[in-house]
Amino acid sequence: MPKLPFALPLILALALIFTLTAAPALRAETKIEAKVDKDDAKPDDEPVLSVTAHSIVVGGKTLKYHATAGYLVLKEEEGKPLVGSATPPPAAAGTEKSKEDEKKPKDGLKPKAKVFFVAYTLDDVTDPATRPLTFCFNGGPGSASIWLHMAAMAPRRAALTDEGEAPPPPYQLVDNESTWLDRTDLVFIDPVSTGYSRPTAKESASQFHGLKEDIASVGDFIRLYTSRNTRWLSPKIIVGESYGTTRAAGLSDYLQNRHGLYLNGIVLVSSVLSFQTIEFTPQNNDPYIGFLPGFATTAWYHKKLPADLQAKSVAEVAALARTFAGGDYALALARGDALPAAESQRIAAELSRFTGLPAAFYLQRKLRVSDFLFFSQLLGSEGKMTGRLDSRFSGIRYEPGTDGFDYDPSDEAVNGPLTAAFNDYVRRELKFESDIPYETLTNVGPWNFGDAGNGFPNTAEDLRKAMTRNPYLKVWVTASYYDLATPFFAAENAVALMNLAPSIRANLRFTYYEAGHMLYIHRPSRIKFKADFESFLNDAVKQQPVHAAAR
């Protein structure tokens, strides 16, 4: 490589300084490679964002957009620690300043964590108030946003079969014909410890690992992103999946109370608002009731039901199973060992009819078969197990004939393609570089669920309060017939127990898909998901004033 003239490096350095300090609109036209902060960097340094230009054809129309990948730094205001943070109390008067005190930034804001995100923003929008902004995240807790990002809504996605199966490696990236970008800007958030997000040097990750702590940190990110990108007047939507729905429900109340940020809509994908509906624990009958219709639809899919039920549609089977589960079965479980033997045998026969498992198997277990037992038993005679996230999938058992849950065949189907696609995409197309591993799903235990005296984790009450105070907040719950991680009937029961006022209940809707937990890996469901979102968005952003003033 030829040597540069002496003056040229100086000119390039000055140009770089100008680029990094230019207005966001100017930086959006420039490709900037982001670098991971080193531990010895100044604590209040803001990492440089990588901004790249792209285009995609959606519905015959070319959309030009820019993608932004990088970090926002969450900071703690002096005297106002983040919710649940491990910030020590202030020093007593007259105490000598420590070396740590001397290093505090002059603005009084102490960096706590770097939150990684990828945002997609449509070009040539003159008025941001006309352009919706949608924040997206997955669940876990401990999951990055890779699933919604690389399989559902972004302009690019990992290539899968139409049913959602993995093709042979190596894998491919393709344009996403069902991207939501034509209707809304998108921001995919990786909570602290997931993806590339990490606490700053000498900060403990545990201060972000909890129900309230997580809600606060993600809520503060949303506030910061909205402010820095001048999007306070844009319609705002939140999309959460799985534990992300627990987070989203909590955020609805937190954003209103803490930041005065009112949402237009919340999308709960594969919902769990109350953990009482999914935790198989002693004396908790709710999961057995909530999972039964999902067991029935799964048995229907694998052709394990009697001929009369097998001849019905999956929706009809689900309806019949709901009636039995919420009626005779719920009453039988409530009676415990006081249930007469003849009635127990009748209920066991009905359970066998709806699930394909032997009645004797139910009698032996006091009419209670947990999810993991069901996964191993339904196809046990074939030496296979069903998927948990998507019970359409099946896999060969490690140890056929046992009750153990070896692995989730539906998780294995998508983990490889999505992980490979993202790791290539983030460097090759988004121009973001980092040598730390991108944590798609990491262990964030022990997760602080709060006071055990309050029972199971439940953010349904947060959502009820937010919806009641904000009569414009629309909520959409997606439910899938083959989701045995957050079953559709359990989600319906949790919502019913919110006891919403009729006028507020009208703001909440359910839609159903013949898919699993990650409904969008199934091509027909992904197409329907996009169409259903367009309907929901129209309702969320086009509303008439609610007249609440007394006359």
Report on this structure.
The chain has two domains: 23-88 and 97-276 and 417-441 and 456-541, Rossmann fold (3-Layer(aba) Sandwich); 280-407, no CATH class. The strands form three sheets. Strands 1, 2, 3, 4, 7, 8, 9, 10, 13 and 14 form a ten-stranded mixed β-sheet that branches. Strands 5-6 form a two-stranded antiparallel ribbon. With 551 residues, it is α/β, with parallel strands linked by helices. It has helices at residues 7-21, 24-27, 99-102, 146-153, 211-228, 243-259, 286-301, 307-310, 314-335, 341-355, 359-364, 371-377, 409-428, 460-469, 488-496, 502-505, 523-541, and strands at 50-58, 61-77, 109-122, 133-137, 156-158, 173-175, 185-189, 198-199, 236-242, 265-271, 384-386, 394-396, 474-480, 508-513. The model is unreliable at 1-43 and 86-97 (pLDDT under 50).
Name of the CATH first level of the largest domain: Alpha Beta
Tell me the radius of gyration.
Answer: 25 Å
Strand content: 15-25%
What structural class do helix, strand and pairing data support? alpha/beta
What's the number of helices? 17
Helix content: 25-40%
Q: How many runs of DSSP E, i.e. beta strands?
A: 14
Q: Uncertain runs with pLDDT below 50, 5 residues or more?
A: 1-43, 86-97
**CATH fold title of the largest domain:** Rossmann fold
CATH architecture of the largest domain: 3-Layer(aba) Sandwich
- The best one-word shape is globular
Count of the domains? 2
Give the end-to-end Cα distance, rounded to a whole number of Å. Answer: 80 Å
Q: What's the story with the biggest beta sheet? A: 10 strands, mixed
Averaging pLDDT over every residue, what do you get? 89
CATH H level of the largest domain: which superfamily?
A: Alpha/Beta hydrolase fold, catalytic domain
